[in-house]
Amino acid sequence: MSANGSDHKTNLQESAKRHMWLHFSRMAAYAGHDMPTITRGEGPYVYDEKGKRYLDGLAGLFVSQIGHGRAEVAEAAARQARELAYFPLWSYAHPQAIDLAERLSGMAPGDLNRVFFTTGGSEAVEAAWKMAKQYFKLTGEHGRYKVLSRDIAYHGTTMGALAVTGLSAIKGPFEPMLQGGVRVPNTNFYRAPSFVADDVNAFGV
Q1: What DSSP letter does each residue of the chain carry, written as one string?
Q2: Is 148 helix (H, G, I), strand (E, B) or coil?
């Protein structure tokens, strides 16, 4: 590595340690060590600043399932950004949102035909809970506000999503949680306290 390259890496590390606050991380762990830094991706793999390759098994936290470094995706994003970078769907629509909503509606079951766009999973959970609560208030069923979710299930990091998440270790620092999140046991057959003659079908009934 050239002197300039080495200096740049050192500057990046110093800047990262001074200004970055990583999610789900013990920041003190980086006091005497470099902060892992991913610099590029190709297909299902990502590479760190030392060139080490990793399989991106989480797909960038579930948002890059089609892989990294896709030129056609970058070109489509550039075309859209030149035309309209971002516009909120608050009282206005735009052609791309309309087209996508129509496509998704065509894939939805039954008579579901409307799409409410969000920016990510946690917001989607929050929006769904809010819609359900509002619906039952409007129909006079004020007592219906609980959400059932699986134990050991992850639904997001915002306060509402945490309330229905079944991972106590990540919830403790933010308690008390919002009311209404109720956990039910996971349907793991091998953890069932009792079942009929190892009958998976009977367990599922």
Answers
A1: --HHHHHHHHHHHHHHHHH---TT--GGGGSSSPPP-EEEEEBTEEEETT--EEE-TTHHHHT-TT-B--HHHHHHHHHHHHH-S----SS---HHHHHHHHHHHHHSSTT-------SSHHHHHHHHHHHHHHHHHHTT-TT---EEEETT----SSHHHHHH---GGGTGGGPSPPTTEEEE----GGG-S--STT-HHHHH-
A2: strand
What is the number of residues in the chain?
Answer: 205
Three-state secondary structure call for residue 184: strand
- 131's CB contacts (< 8 A; 6+ apart) are 116
- Which element (helix H / strand E) includes 128? helix 121-138
Flag whether the pTM goes above 0.85.
Answer: no
Q: Name 38's bridge partners.
A: 48
Express each pLDDT in 17-30 by its tens digit.
999 999 888 899 99
Over residues 133-185, the pLDDT tens digits come to 999 999 999 999 999 998 888 999 899 999 999 888 888 889 999 888 888 88
**CA 52 → CA 39, 48, 66, 197, distances in Å?**
10, 5, 21, 49
Average pLDDT, the chain: 89
Tokens in use for 157?
Answer: 């990091």
